[in-house]
Amino acid sequence: MDHLTRELAPISTAGWQRIDEEVRERLTVHLAARWVVDVAGPHGWQHSSTNLGRVRSIGTGGDAVLRQRQVLPLVEVRVPFTIDRQVLEDADRGAEDLEFDDLDRAARQAALIENQAVFHGSAEAGISGIADRSPHGPRPLGAEAGSYPGVVARAVDTLRQAGMKGPYALAVGPEGYTRIVESTEHGGLLVLDHLRRILDGGKVVRALGVRGAVVASLSGDNFVLELGQDLSVGYSHHDRESVSLYVEESFSFRVTEPDAAVVLTD
To answer: Name one Pfam family in it (predicted).
Structure first.
């Protein structure tokens, strides 16, 4: 038995398969940061920290010099949710039109926490986000999608001048993304298509949890999301009416090349 204790849940093999499929489907939509940064791992639940390759002096002892390795501890995220036992029984019968509203909420919340840590950091966890580390001055994105191509083009030019190669990604909050996909420029060109050209064939990513937007180089080795345990579903407890589960992961994040991103504000 592992720490997820799935074997103790009153859930059939088919039921677990359905739950895992539902969670995977929802997380794929919301885990925007993973389209922009490098992902290392998963290294397993027991993996506790990321090596930073640095030391700090902690004194001397006679002729000896004492130094301590510096690491970044991983963050554990656990988001609980419940499923009615009637829904699980219906899944075993082959029902397709099942309601997993609380599962959807939990998956969205877990993805939001990861996205926010990557793009905006987490002071409590000692994580600096992409927006925190960028040395380039923030640029206003504006409220009209028609102005986005010019703003993004200038951001891409800034990255090129800093030696950051393409392709590039535009990670933009849900409202800004909606404006993009609904808009055309004079002449009928879709704003989305124009942005992709500016990004050198890169990606426009709908990023839950992003404030404004971030333009980042996808050349690699610039940002690293390190996973201990990747997002998984575990069992907590149950009663006659429902089963209490959770979505869980452990991760750290570090910016290895601050020059590789430009922040666009609302």
So the answer is: Linocin_M18
Tokens of 190: 């879709």
- Domains in the chain, start-ordered, CATH in brackets? 6-265 (3.30.2400.30)
| pTM assigned to the model | 0.94
| The CA-based dihedral angle spanning residues 193, 197, 203, 206, taken in that order and rounded to the nearest 10 degrees | -40
CB 193 within 8 A of CB 8: no
pLDDT tens figures, 67-107: 999 999 999 999 999 999 999 999 999 988 888 999 999 99
Closest alpha carbon to 136 in 110, 115, 164: 164
